[in-house]
Each structure stands twice: as C-alpha cells, then as structure tokens.
Amino acid sequence: MRFADRIDAAQQLARALQGWRGRHPLVLAIPRGALPMGRVLAERLQGELDVVLVRKLRSPFSPEYAIGAIDELGWAYIAPYAHAAGADDAYIEREKREQLQVLRERRARYTPQRAAVDPAGRVVIVVDDGLATGATMLAALHAVRAHRPELLVCAVPVASQDAIELVRPHADQVVCLFTPPDFQAVGQFYRTFGQVDDEEAIALLRAAGQDAPPPP
C-alpha cells in the first residue's frame, strides 16, 4: 500500500510538481478517476483544471486490459500485443467506433457550453491515477502535443515500469512517485480506490469553475 486514496496521492504528487507553481499550469485530468486528483493539483499549483478525453481500447477477453487507446479525434495507439490478446482487425475497428461514441457523449456532458481549454503555449500537466499499460496516457499525451504546449508533463502516482518506458518519449517530463517491481494493477497501491462516476466528474469541473451543467 502506498496511498490512502486519490486525494492523498494527488497531495504527494503536488509536492513533486511544486516547481510549476506560479506558472498557471493547465492540469488535464484523464476521466474519470483522475479528476479528483486534477482538482487538487490545480489548486495546489495555482493552475487551471480541464479534461483530456481518451478511452482505453479493451481486450475482447478481459475488458479491464488495454490493447490500445483512442483520443476524441480518432487517433489510436494499438499495442503490439493486441492481436496476440485476441483482437483481430475487425474487432479493433468496432472497438474504436464504440469508444469514439463514448467520447462524444462524454464531451457533450462535460463541456457542453465551451470548447476544451487550449493547451497551446502553456505548461500542461496530464494526470492519471496510475498507469498499467500506459496506453491511455500515451493517447492523451499525443492529443495534447498536437496543440503545441510549451511544456508537456506526464504526472502519475504509480505506474508499471513498462508503462513509464512507453510514455516517456511522448512527454517533456515524466513525474511518477512509485514504479514497483511487483506491479499488477493500479488499485493495489490505494487503500480506497472507488469508482468516479459522471456525476462526480461533472461536479468537480463545476467546482473548479468550469461550466458543465449539474447532473440531471
């Protein structure tokens, strides 16, 4: 066990990111689990909170296992082991379409009255609650990089060593507090690791000053 919960993890991560305090960084959380963390980081670093929308592409035999990830513009990372995990080309295309639809629905719910905050020319910190395969973070970094940030930081409390090596070339800086050799799943390093639902995600954006409407 390393963290009591996501808030504890975010507080520890904020200390490691103090160098960016005062630069008004844009903190982009990967929904939904990272949103409570993103709010803490934005407050501690005197920054701005928004979301970067990406989705895991699920293995056909183990939905929690990522065979890749996709951003909301349709760019996808496909892991080299995807076919060995049972995902043929037809399955991958179906999964991409399904997850793109989820992203469209989530964008409509999270930021219906505005465009995403523009990362161009800014210090951008992309945060997640942990990296197992690294696929989702890689897609998020790719999506943000396309907008030409001044500096792109990947920030996570815990990750597998393989995931860190996957994402490292795609960020200007990687801040990871813990890369255990016995990594099996992100949740094993949290005492409390409950699900974050859409209603909580929307409430967190509203509390941070974004204009998502209250849940129906």
TrEMBL record:
GO molecular function, one term: glycosyltransferase activity
Domain Phosphoribosyltransferase: 15-176
Organism listed in the record: Ramlibacter lithotrophicus
Pfam families: Pribosyltran (PF00156)
Protein's UniProt name: Phosphoribosyltransferase
Keyword tags: Glycosyltransferase, Transferase
